[in-house]
Request: fold
Amino acid sequence: MWAALLGLLAGGPLQAQPVVLQAAEAQVVARIDAGQSVAIDVQQRLYLAEGRSRQILVLDSAGTALWTLGGRGVGDGQVQDPRGLEAQDGTFVWVADAQEGVLHRFAQRGPWMTSLRLDPATFDEGSLGVPAARPRLPGEPAEDRQDAFSRPVDLCTGPTGALYALDQHTGRVAWWDARYQPVQWLEPAQGRWLDPVGVAASRDRVYVADQATQTVTVFDVFGTQTAMWADSTWTPLRALVGAPNGVWVLHETGLDYLSQGGVRQQRLVLPSSLGAAVDVAVGPRHVFVLYPDRLVRWSLDPAN
Reply:
């Protein structure tokens, strides 16, 4: 069973039997206060968004503290409500500040680099094609956001360098190209999402989870909706995590891996005794599950 699951993580064949993760086998990686988001990079460093301190804690995969990003405030590199994290390539880290409507980019070891405001007016019809303001650089004054209300709660990057940010306020996903010029809104064919909670990308797909309808909407790299997946067991949906050939869906009872075609290839069942999971990060050998007060990991290889 474990060999099949490791094969799946590498793009291998279907393993239909659910894997039940035992609470007794969970290893506590970190104790935190108001955990909100977790991400992992290619070097297996972990990034934890902590709501109370407004910091991003950076750890190695065993839980050793490395450094921190952000901190409470509205100045350069400070955040008020850190939510979505993106750190896959390990060279820089994106942090979505839901309260301020801003996406911050940090260098690998912490210096703040730029900020990009999620301004809904930029993506409205009639505004696209007009050159957008470049990201704010160190030393430049912050913009007044009184006329641009947004609430980015998650974000991800695509394989071509595109950036996607989920705006919970408008129920849409803002899409920028690799030069941070606005491309368009992503929204479902039936209108806006009612309670969107996650956005993720795979090799050539973008996925958006809506808790209200228990669905995942799928788009190609051109922004065309290709599918909408529904599952009655996704009650409620919590988060999405992209993988090269599919997406992980975190829900109340566990974690499902679906191929780009929507076939559920694996289900990891989480122990209910640990409470409700907030977010998840999946590495080559471990799955890291974030709860409000702790980050725990399970080995996906019985030898470790």
